Amino acid sequence: MPYFDAASSVPLHPVARQALQASLDEGWADPARLHREGRRARLLLDAAREAAAEAVGCRPDELFFTPSGTHALHSGISGALAGRRRVGRHLTVSAVEHSAVLHCAESWRADGGTVTEAGVDRHGAVDAAEFAAHLRADTALACLQSANHEVGTLQPVAEAAAACREAGVPLLVDAAQSLGWEAVPGDWSLLAASAHKWGGPAGVGLLAVRKGVRFAPRGPADERESGRSPGFENIPAVVAAAASLRAVRAEAAAEDARLRELVDRIRARVPQLVPDVEVVGDPVRRLPHLVTFSCLYVDGETLLHELDREGFSVSSGSSCTSSTLTPSHVLRAMGVLSEGNVRVSLPAGTRAEEVERFLGVLPGVVAGVRERLGAPASAGSAGSAGSAGSAAEGDVAGAGQGSPLTVDAVGRLCPVPVIELAKVIGDVPVGGTVRVLADDEAARLDIPAWCAMRGQEYAGEPEPGVYLVRRKV
Amino acid sequence: MPYFDAASSVPLHPVARQALQASLDEGWADPARLHREGRRARLLLDAAREAAAEAVGCRPDELFFTPSGTHALHSGISGALAGRRRVGRHLTVSAVEHSAVLHCAESWRADGGTVTEAGVDRHGAVDAAEFAAHLRADTALACLQSANHEVGTLQPVAEAAAACREAGVPLLVDAAQSLGWEAVPGDWSLLAASAHKWGGPAGVGLLAVRKGVRFAPRGPADERESGRSPGFENIPAVVAAAASLRAVRAEAAAEDARLRELVDRIRARVPQLVPDVEVVGDPVRRLPHLVTFSCLYVDGETLLHELDREGFSVSSGSSCTSSTLTPSHVLRAMGVLSEGNVRVSLPAGTRAEEVERFLGVLPGVVAGVRERLGAPASAGSAGSAGSAGSAAEGDVAGAGQGSPLTVDAVGRLCPVPVIELAKVIGDVPVGGTVRVLADDEAARLDIPAWCAMRGQEYAGEPEPGVYLVRRKV
């Protein structure tokens, strides 16, 4: 049963399992104690710290273990901001950071700080020069991911780090998605990562804080991990995390080449096999194992369920698959379609046959979902009048001269508003306008994206929930 | 090799190991995902929550997993304080709480809150009526441990909880030391505990927040654990924690009886076997497996090392064994001797022969440490003139009429100041005074404690670091 959601979490690497089991017997005691069990635990902890630091590319005394990548980000960001509070209260982040970073930014803003977000291009890539332009005299910290977790695009961390050094601003790199593949390049100041992303156990994050970076830990004092991370040390897990990081790094070059080819196959063939699909993310500067695409006229949750029934585990940034019913902020920042979104992230060891099976199953699954939703038939034809189902199926009104044709999709979740739009676009003359009324948050992203994919003109949102589309073709 | 430091951490319980290994294969995925691996992880997490909630005595939706007991305390205290900020900013705690609680209190005070501490008696017990007297109209939260981690004394949590209900103040119980033995009695509002204390793995704390308790999680938003605990769920560890809690509870009654008898043996025999020892903590209302005693004229760190060489792992609240060189705040609050302090906490399964071996080894070890320190010979004789080594060994001055005899122990660590005091007390007449100059923090505790043990009068500290002792016998 192929599991294609490696970017969420991967099964324990065999080396992690072995190290975990071995250190359960040796690493359970309190490493602060003077007795032999404590000293043994301390030795394991020190050795794990050295191994992890080497893989990160920092000194062991710059590397701290936290209970998760989220904790590493929370502690790293709050500690760096507090350490530089005399400099100022400005934080800059990219718009496509992980929600853990963006939630820190929200919390910082709520506490009276200032936050600016560097935007991204349609591939989800930050522009290093634009990122640098966000650095100000009062900037306490800048945050940039090494690679995007939803679309796989690599970010220009080395260039951003150089610009930050130049400006005297520390750069925190969220390396959660890339650390298993390679060390983060460049002269960064802080780094955060998460072991379960590379095959280590849950319960371990890494926080690196370079010597010389001003850092003031927040929250109640705790002497563990040099005051950077409170709570009893989870030594067996930390040992397993460090051992597996070394192990996956040893396999990284070969797996990178293998998975990169499989992802290229998916990137090339999905648009051939499935009509009305947008493959997103940078095709070249990307993580080796991750590809994301969105399917017009498809409900992401149903798509995930159908793929799951076929044995494929994938993830989605569609709004209907999130508890908040909002589409992924990454897709939003990129300005790409969010409906029918599928993220395929291949774990190490994925076989070509599994990918082929996926490619074999996907077209039928998408077609089935579309059929049940009453979606327009296929690409190219959606723009031609009369082809896309009868207008009677939509709540269409005022198609006459003078007032624009209106599609009322209030209360309907995506992809319904876009489907209804596609059904009626042929009913207005070229140059004519369709008004779509929709209160699903995703419409704001998907209606413009549909226009871009279909060559129609998105004419704006004159009032919230009212979208204007002008027929061009 | 007997390990007698169960109150710090215990080896993994066989049931925990079994559950951990089994769930490594099933519990590595993100339980928020819709695919089968995610659903499987979610099932394990839900089952663990139910099992843990049952053992805690709360509803599953009142129970949250955190990365450690420290995190449970930090989140529980900060969340409860924030949830009741309109009521007021007063926090009350006992003086003998775990440092994780006291550090929260310090941090709260630094943020502008008010903190009061309920004192304890010489056994380390909080008086429920005194605790209740700390509850005020502006009290946002009260914290009380179920049992003390250093001396084993049980606290009156049920009575304190009743008083808190009466006053409309939530009570948070730190149940770290007792939860493996029994559910916390009474109508508490919040509870925190730590799995590695009962034989669960590191990396798991429990936070219970009863429905109806106002709670506002602090820090950046995170949807995991109902917003109570950020970070990727550590499901294998959580499963192991819950399973082992049930397992140790099933064995608790029998182990309680067995270990209680062994501790009674230590409590009775140590004072018979070793001169000048004070056994501290409540002899009856106590944890079954824990006993603490302090040895006059002994340096705690050396004692620990010597016991370690003999194969016994224990812990100590003496100042010389802490990184801050301050004696345990628990011993200080109790007003008992801190020098030569030993905490013996027996893990489940400890055999009577191991305790007997310990009792066989201890007298020689203590005598050896005392001999090397040049300590006075033995109990009873220390007060009689001329018996306790020659005054020439101490830095003694002004023994004549008029000005009091002075012992200059500045720059010397405990137990040296007390040893020097004991050596010269016989040189002053009954009714005469010795002045001890000492800058070791522990002297403030140990000189009065020595006086109480020796029947001499402690006449105060007229200026910092100057202690007056009047000879009575």
Automatic annotation (TrEMBL), chains A, B:
Residues 378-398 are annotated as: Disordered. InterPro entries: Aminotrans_V_dom (IPR000192), PyrdxlP-dep_Trfase (IPR015424), PyrdxlP-dep_Trfase_major (IPR015421), PyrdxlP-dep_Trfase_small (IPR015422), TusA-like (IPR001455), TusA-like_sf (IPR036868). CDD domains: SirA_YedF_YeeD (cd00291). Keywords: Aminotransferase, Transferase. Gene3D superfamilies: Aspartate Aminotransferase, domain 1 (3.90.1150.10), TusA-like domain (3.30.110.40), Type I PLP-dependent aspartate aminotransferase-like (Major domain) (3.40.640.10). It catalyses: (sulfur carrier)-H + L-cysteine = (sulfur carrier)-SH + L-alanine. This is Aminotransferase class V-fold PLP-dependent enzyme. It comes from Streptomyces genisteinicus.
